[in-house]
Amino acid sequence: MDRKTVLLDEAQLERQREYTRQLAALHQQRGKPVYALVDTFGCQQNVADSQHILGMLRDMGCQFTDDAAQADIVVLNTCAIRDHAEKRVYGNLGALTHTKKQNPEQVICLCGCMAQRPEVAEKVRQSYRHVDLVFGPQALWKFPELLYRVYTRRGRVFSVEDEHGTIAEGMPVVREGNVRAWVSIMYGCNNFCSYCIVPYVRGRERSREPQCIIDDVRQLAAEGYKEITLLGQNVNSYGKDLETPWDFADLLRELDKIEGDYLIRFMSSQPKDATPKLFDTMARSRHVAHQLHLPVQSGCDRVLRAMNRPYDRAKYLELITYARKVMPDLVLTSDVIIGFPGETEAEAMETVELVRQVEFDALFTFIFSPRPGTPAAKMDDPVPRSEKQKWFDTLCAVQNDISARLHARYVGQTLRVLVDGRTDDARWPLSARTAGGRLVHLVGDEDALGQYRQVRITDSNTWALFGEMV
Predict the structure, then answer these.
(1) Does 174 fall in a domain?
(2) What is the crossing angle of helices 210-222 and 248-255, to 10°?
(3) ω into residue 269 within 30 of 0, thus cis?
(4) What mean pLDDT comes out for the span 83-93?
(5) Phi/psi at 31 (5° precision)
(6) How many domains does the chain have?
(7) Which pLDDT score, from 0 to 100, does residue 139 have?
(8) Residue 101 is assigned to a structural domain of this protein
(9) What Å distances lie between residue 77 and 52, 96, 173, 305, 335, CA to CA?
(10) Looking at 364, 386, 408, which one is the last position of a domain?
(11) Which residues contact 413 (CB under 8 A, 6 or more apart)?
């Protein structure tokens, strides 16, 4: 891909800033506060995108609310990965007919991956006529222009063209809290796994320039953020489209040089692009967490080929063996899909056996959900859902036992954790995360919120650790 067509120039960005200023003037003319609500579904990339939407709305003079009835602008930033998420979005859109009736001037926007799908855009056009603006991820950077068109043309606006995608640097951002921050290092995906809609709605891979990422992380570290997560649909394929010979390990090495008391995490990764160089770099780093989320999806080679995953079971195990060799304290998590079209019970049990062999710290598990527009949605799928549920329950039981055993090993240890929130449980009023990302419920001083603390682990279960501040 020609990077000249990917990187937006200053004139294009200034055009959006001018629309932002005009919208701020229109909002000021109303003589009362203009409230906006941004509701986010799906992955951390969507969270990062929503923070840019919030930044643009802030610069337009908006204040923020969690009450849809109060909001003058409602933005639903959607996910297209799972059917359940789409149903929730349609339910929320239906509920907004009532707020629109109470406030006819309310502007309702649908964006994100779900909005980029042609059949969804057409359904909204025909059946959700109270929605004013629909735009996909590739049009995020021109949200001010699109919203201005809604205001001034008094008509519905759709921006869901099949675009290759761009990179817009310098977009405003409103981050939630001052402890954790998300930094997108690349956008799009080239993998075309047969079950996944992402390449069709987020475009081809395109990497941000290294210096832009380094500047972002340096600024966040200077501002006192304690955890910085690097985001991409496949972070460890970073740099393949750059003119300079940078890969993801090179980027981590440079980021690790930035001074400060912080951890770097990243997600998500593809086994085909995970390398010993990457694991060696993680092992030598001061700031990169020894945590790896490496989705395997299946433990059966035939199913992996049907999924268009370009590695096999042996290759995956080889990667894990090396990563654990250089990082004995590595915390490993993964994604698994059960019930892929054509999968047999014996093949599903191959995945269960892989889980037993690897002993992941935790798994994100899913029963196959067909996504319209993907090759897997057209595959013959004769196994009933009830049968897949049995396989799924077996997988979860095995993993739950492993997680419980691994968590029990922490009992009696003293760990450095980041205290990041409160809970509803009076016995364990605070929550925290270990360097490996393990959840800790604890007792201690609330002044520790947002800080690293030493915690002695006193108990555990399948899903969490429990402890007290030392």
Answers:
(1) no
(2) 30
(3) no
(4) 88
(5) 75, 10
(6) 3
(7) 93
(8) yes
(9) 11, 14, 15, 32, 23
(10) 408
(11) 456, 457
Give the residue carrying structure tokens 């196994």. Answer: 383
Distance CA 49, CA 55 (A): 10
Element (H, E) at 58: helix 44-59
Does 113 appear as a known binding residue? yes
pLDDT of residue 386: 97
Closest CA to 368 of 126, 152, 195, 165: 195
111 belongs to an annotated ligand binding site: no
DSSP assignment letter at 403: H
CA atoms of 241 and 231, how far apart (whole Å): 17
Task: Report the distance separating Cα 44 and Cα 61, nearest Å.
Answer: 26
Is 152 inside any structural domain? yes
The reply to whether 189 sits in an annotated binding site is: yes
List CB contacts of 68: < 8 A, sequence separation 6 or more: 37, 74, 95, 96, 99
pLDDT band at residue 1, thresholds of 50, 70 and 90? low
Residue 300 is assigned to a ligand binding site? no
Question: Does the pLDDT of residue 440 top 70, yes or no?
Answer: yes
Please check whether residues 349 and 420 belong to one and the same domain: no
Q: Are residues 131 and 196 in the same domain?
A: no
C-alpha distances out from residue 245 to 174, 276, 281, 452, Å: 32, 18, 17, 36
CATH of the domain at 103: 3.40.50.12160
Spatial separation of the C-alpha atoms in residues 1 and 110, rounded to whole Å: 28
Residue 432: give its domain's CATH number: 2.40.50.140
